[in-house]
Design goal:
Length: about 80
């Protein structure tokens, strides 16, 4: 199986997001990537693991939603 290094454009296309999102994830969410000279390169397998573990989550996941619902119920009751 091929596991070559992908460019920003390739990984953005693979994930269905913009280049800007990739750069934001690199700086703010610890997206796995390596600088090669002035370019960022990515291993698809490492990015897949990062996404699966919630690295690309927008912070509005199920746990936060349940916590909000429970907190609201406690405050009301």
């Amino acid at each position: 199986m091929e596991d070559r290094w992908l460019s920003v454009d390739e990984i953005a296309s693979y994930l269905g997001v913009s280049r800007d999102t990739i750069y934001n994830w690199l700086s703010q969410r610890g997206m796995p990537g390596r600088r090669v000279g002035r370019f960022w390169k990515f291993k698809k397998s490492a990015v897949d693991e990062w996404v699966e573990s919630g690295g690309a989550d927008d912070g509005k996941g199920a746990i936060e939603q349940v916590t909000t619902l429970l907190t609201g119920s406690i405050e009301e009751g």
